[in-house]
From TrEMBL:
Its EC number is 2.7.1.11. The keyword Transmembrane helix does not apply. This is 6-phosphofructokinase. Keywords: Allosteric enzyme, ATP-binding, Cytoplasm, Glycolysis, Kinase, Magnesium, Metal-binding, Nucleotide-binding, Transferase. Pathway: Carbohydrate degradation; glycolysis; D-glyceraldehyde 3-phosphate and glycerone phosphate from D-glucose: step 3/4. GO terms for biological process: canonical glycolysis; fructose 1,6-bisphosphate metabolic process; fructose 6-phosphate metabolic process. InterPro entries: ATP_PFK (IPR022953), Phosphofructokinase_CS (IPR015912), Phosphofructokinase_dom (IPR000023), PKF_sf (IPR035966). Signal peptide: none annotated. GO terms for cellular component: 6-phosphofructokinase complex. PROSITE patterns: PHOSPHOFRUCTOKINASE. One of its GO terms (molecular function) is monosaccharide binding. It comes from Ceratitis capitata. Residues 91-375 form the Phosphofructokinase domain.
Length: 469
């Protein structure tokens, strides 16, 4: 927002309308200042007049979604049979696949209660696909998920096993328990699980049921969504640890810390943590680098340390480069510093998964669980045959629920397969990559930046969405 405000000032003329910098649909935008003031005053006026519907509408879609979620989930007991739907209930299974991430339990809680509210039955699968094959399915009640919202981990249990080679056993269990809908909560393995089951629909009738994925992983590396459940909690933990590490050497000699984050080949955590912690640089797989780039960054660090700065912070994603490891970077920085500063390495490990989910993760997990419960019920109604069997064969009956802008959208896993780099377990296009140039600008020591043609950038309008050579 600060960078966009500077750009707005530089581009302004005497006739430019005053603007306010806002966050809209996950994008930094400028809107007319007077229009924002008028809408704020309109909301207050609606409250004074008792026009509650207008006041709620003026608060935006996020406020409306949170209010509806609160009304639904704060019930002390489930609805009665008279309040439920008249048709016979459907059987839905929920399981966790992948690695634990804070917020999975919150999503499960809201999903379970939404399904029960719709009058359907839900079965919890223990230990992911291993538990499904072993028949470890148990009915879940409204009271079974009390207190789950604030808890980390995954109470149902999970692992990273995917269904390849196990299709007959999975089909047999789905047929045995008469499962008519499946919800998988987890990371990239959850996405692969639903995609694999969908591709085998022609061979197994049991897989012709509505299926949905709720993305939950700290890596934020899944297609079809801008945020995954658990990423915000992990980012908070990494930033807090970076602050602690930097403060730990306060009053000591000049020192640079090289911190390695999780995330595989996805550099989301390293990039966003570098911005939040004020790091000097962040190395990721998506932005290729070599020894010359690291030497340039080290020269930049030396220039800083030669002045009043005493602490340096460098982040790298664990999959940034198999040869330029954290240990290699430590020795390179120490060698290039000529004794100006010492260097230490810290590999954070599983501590960055966090303990308790942040409010942001709890809220999006709750909303995703409700949205997924409604989606799976609607798809089962559409796929129900006259003989009582389920036949879901369209690609839109197996979807990923994603948070895109202000809305939750469903994208078929078949379409998402064309947007995925399966080798590296990342989407082909990632929205946060456009923040990399801003990170580079904020970490450079000199006040004038030059392009390849040696023209000072400060003589031209700054575009923070440009690419950096």
């Amino acid at each position: 927002m600060g960078a966009e405000a500077v750009v707005a000032v530089l581009e302004a003329t005497g006739n430019t309308t005053p603007v306010v910098v806002v966050l809209t649909n996950n994008q930094i935008e400028r809107i007319p200042l007077m229009g924002a003031v008028e809408r704020t005053q309109a909301a207050n006026e609606a409250l004074k007049c008792g026009d509650w519907a207008k006041a709620i509408a003026l608060r935006g879609v996020f406020f409306q979604g949170n209010m509806l979620a609160l009304k639904l989930l704060s019930r002390a007991k489930p609805p009665t049979k008279e309040q439920c739907c008249v048709p016979p209930p459907f059987n839905i299974a929920v399981m966790h696949v992948g690695s634990p991430a804070c917020g999975i339990n919150a999503a499960t809680r809201s999903l379970v209660r939404t399904i029960i509210y719709n009058g359907d039955r839900i079965f919890g699968v223990s230990n992911g696909l291993v538990g499904l094959i072993a028949g470890q399915l148990k009915p879940m009640a409204w009271s079974d998920v009390i207190g789950w919202c604030s808890q980390g981990g995954a109470f149902l249990g999970m692992n990273r096993i995917t269904p390849e080679g196990k299709y007959p056993e999975i089909a047999r269990r789905l047929r045995e328990f008469n499962i008519q809908g499946l919800v998988v909560i987890g990371g990239f393995e959850a996405y692969r699980t639903v995609l694999s089951l969908t591709t085998e629909r022609g061979s197994y009738q049991e897989f012709c049921i509505p299926m949905a994925v709720i993305p939950s992983t700290i890596s934020n590396n899944m297609p079809g969504t801008e945020y995954t459940i658990g990423a915000d909690t992990s980012l908070n933990e990494i930033t807090k640890i970076c602050d602690l590490i930097r403060d730990s050497a306060r009053g000591y000699k000049k020192r640079v810390f090289i911190i390695e984050t999780m995330g595989g080949f996805c550099g989301y955590l390293a990039t966003m943590a570098a911005m939040a912690a004020g790091a000097d640089s962040a190395y990721i797989f998506e932005e290729k680098f070599n020894v010359r780039d690291m030497q340039r960054d080290c020269a930049n660090m030396v220039a800083k340390m030669s002045d009043v700065i005493e602490r340096g912070l460098v982040l790298r994603c664990e999959g940034a480069n198999k040869n330029y490891t954290a240990d290699f970077m430590q020795r390179l920085y120490e060698e290039e510093s000529n004794g100006l500063f010492s260097c230490r390495t810290c590999i954070l490990g599983h501590a960055q998964q966090g303990g308790k989910p942040t409010p942001f993760d709890r809220c999006i997990a709750t909303e995703m669980g409700i949205a997924c419960g409604q989606f799976i019920h609607e798809q089962m109604v559409k796929s129900l045959q006259t003989d009582g069997t389920m036949l879901a064969v369209t690609k839109h009956s197996a979807c990923m629920l994603g948070m895109i802008g202000p809305e939750y959208k469903y994208t078929s896993v078949e379409d998402l397969s064309h947007q995925t780099e399966f080798q590296y377990r990342t989407p082909k296009n990632q929205w946060w990559m456009k923040l990399r140039p801003l990170l580079r600008i904020l970490s450079t020591h000199d006040s004038a930046y030059t392009t390849d043609n040696k023209a000072p950038v400060h003589q031209q309008p700054v575009d923070i969405n440009c690419t950096v050579n």
